Structure formats: C-alpha cells, structure tokens
Amino acid sequence: MSNPQFSERIIFVTFDQLSRSHGALATAVPGQDQIVFIESHDMLTARTWHAQRLFFLLSCCEHLKSELDAGGFQVTTIHASSMRSGLEKLRAQHPDLPIVSTSPSSRSLRQVLNSLGVELLPNNNFLTTPEQFTSWASGYKSLTMEYFYRWQRKRLNILMDHDQPVGGQWNLDHDNRLPPPRPKKGQAPHLWPEPLRFESDQIDDQVRDRLSEFHTWGEPPNGTWATTRTGALAQLAHFTENSLTNFGPFEDAMPTDTWTVNHSLLSPYLNVGLLHPGEVVQAAIDKYEQGGIPLSSIEGFV
Asked: 76 by DSSP, 3-state: which?
C-alpha cells in the first residue's frame, strides 16, 4: 500500500463503476485522491464464470487502472478474501483518510460500505434515481412495466410529440415479432450484420493468461467484447450504422445461423459503466432523426 501522506481522500471503485466521467471518479483529482480497487477472492471463485465474462470484467478494470495511472493518480489494488475484508484492511491502513465511493447497485455491498463509514455519492450511471422511482411507484398498487415505460418517455422526452408518443402509439410490439427470414428455394440466405471484432492489447493478453487461475466454462475470449470505452463507443456506432434499421422486426427472432441477429451487444458496457444509457439512447435517436430508421425499430430499441 502506498504512503497515505500523498493522498487527501480515497476513492473506492467497484467492477460496475468503471466510468471516468460519472460517480465518484468524476470528482477525482490527481495528487489528492488515491484510487483503490479490491479484488475479492470470494467474488472471483464463488461461482463458475464464463471465461469471456470474467475476462471482460478483469480486463476492463485493468484498462481503467492503466488510464488512471497515466493520468497521474495513485492507483492501488487490494487482494482480499472478501470485499468486506478488503475494505476493513483499507480502513485499518488509512484510519484518518475519508473514503468515498459511488453508491453500488448491490444492496449487500451498500450495507458493508455504510457499516464502515464510507461516504456514498449518488450513482448517476442510471437514467432514474431510486428516489424518482420510489416517488413514481408510490402512486400504484401494482407495478406494470408499460406504465413505467410511458412515464419514462414523458419524463425524459424520448420519442414524444408534445404529450403524445411520436406516431400516436406507445409501443409497436405487433410490428416487431417477425420470425427469421426463410429464403425461398434458389434464393441466397439472409445476410445478418457481422459483429465487430476487437484486437487484443498487452493488458488483454495479461488478463487472458490469468484465466487459468480460475474455474471457468465456455469459449475463451475471442475478440467479441471490447475492454475499453473507446471500443464500447465503436460498438455503439457499429450498431446504429449497421443494425438499428432492422432491429425491431427481428428483435425476438432466434435464427440458427447467427447469435447476434441485429442486437446491439451493448449491455456489458452499460453494466460496467463504459457507456451511459443516456448517450446510448441519444445516439440511436440521432440516427433515427437522420432518416431511414423505421419507428418500430427505434421504439423497440429505446
């Protein structure tokens, strides 16, 4: 652990808060804040991970550490048996330094952080705060996704024409349930968009070598998933350019000749904070407003 005299505050970062521009890291100042990550043995071994998922989490985290280090931050990784023990070790080694973190999505981790006196900053990696959701939900005896969806559309002014949905209908599910195309005899098979492939860098290679330490299942990393924000933005652009047009009609289709169909493949990046839902929605809306995107596709996506 580095000497605390060079730090005024510690920022604890979890694996799903890897955004430099949101949450606690958005407030970080080089030379003042020490950035701490905890690699928990329990988290990495309590379940059998898919090799690509574990690779993705670890490599995204290592890329952020490298970026922060290059930006002049003091970056520390604590290896511990559990997240709690790692945080207790951190508190014991820095009893006089304030520790802050973005409020985690995990309730159990939030309880641990509260018990150790960690200051929790609002988690703005979502479009809706817990307080906003609670306020909305208090007006209903039972919660229905459709009503929440309409409230969000109105509140965020997404695909709205004043107080009505663009096109006059809230959802176009009836247009978005086509089966996979079945070419007639003599016709060429339907061509689905080719997914992006991402080249490995030195950090990726080092993380890939670590996978042998863990019990995993599934195909090893093969370039399907980016591990940086730059790569995540490239995937977003690839989706809006190549797949958004036909996203809607086949969003529920399960063809046998592709696993990607017209899907965005953006969920992992949203889950760890490399993309913000607001920028994803805006990128799709911007493409729609340029023309050529059916309303059923843009509505089905957002």
From this structure: strand
Question: Which residue(s) pair with 33 in the sheet?
Answer: 9
pLDDT tens digits along 68-82: 999 999 999 999 999
Helix (H, G, I), strand (E, B) or coil at 66: helix
The angle formed by the CA atoms of residues 123, 269 and 68, to the nearest 5 degrees, is: 70
pTM above 0.85, yes or no: yes
| Tokens matching residue 219 | 């195909």
Q: Does residue 160 sit in helix, strand or coil?
A: strand
Whole-number Å distance between alpha carbons of 117 and 100: 9
List, in sequence order, the alpha helices (H) in the chain.
41-45, 51-70, 83-93, 107-115, 130-137, 145-156, 202-210, 229-242, 267-272, 277-289, 295-301
Give the C-alpha distances (Å, rounded to integers) separating 189 from 143, 184, 186, 224, 255. Answer: 43, 9, 9, 23, 12
Residues of the chain with pLDDT > 90, as a percent, come to 91
Q: Classify each residue of 261-293 as buried b or exposed e, where b means 16 or more C-beta atoms within 10 Å of its C-beta.
A: bbbbbbebbbbbbbbbeeebbebbbebbeeeeb
- Distance (Å, rounded) from C-alpha 288 to C-alpha 291? 5
CATH numbers and ranges of domains, the chain: 4-121 (3.40.50.620), 157-301 (1.25.40.80)
Q: pLDDT tens digits, residue range 194-227?
A: 999 999 999 999 999 999 999 999 999 999 999 9
The 8-class DSSP code of residue 31 comes to T
Phi-psi region of 133 (alpha: psi -120 to 50; beta: other; left: phi over 0): alpha
pLDDT, tens only, 262-284: 999 999 999 999 999 999 999 99
For residue 218, is it left (φ>0), alpha (ψ between -120 and 50) or beta?
Answer: left
Average the pLDDT over each of 15-29, 69-83, 142-156, 178-192 and give the range with the smallest value: 178-192
Token look-up 């330094």 returns 97
Percent of residues in the chain assigned helix, strand, coil, to nearest 5: 45, 10, 45
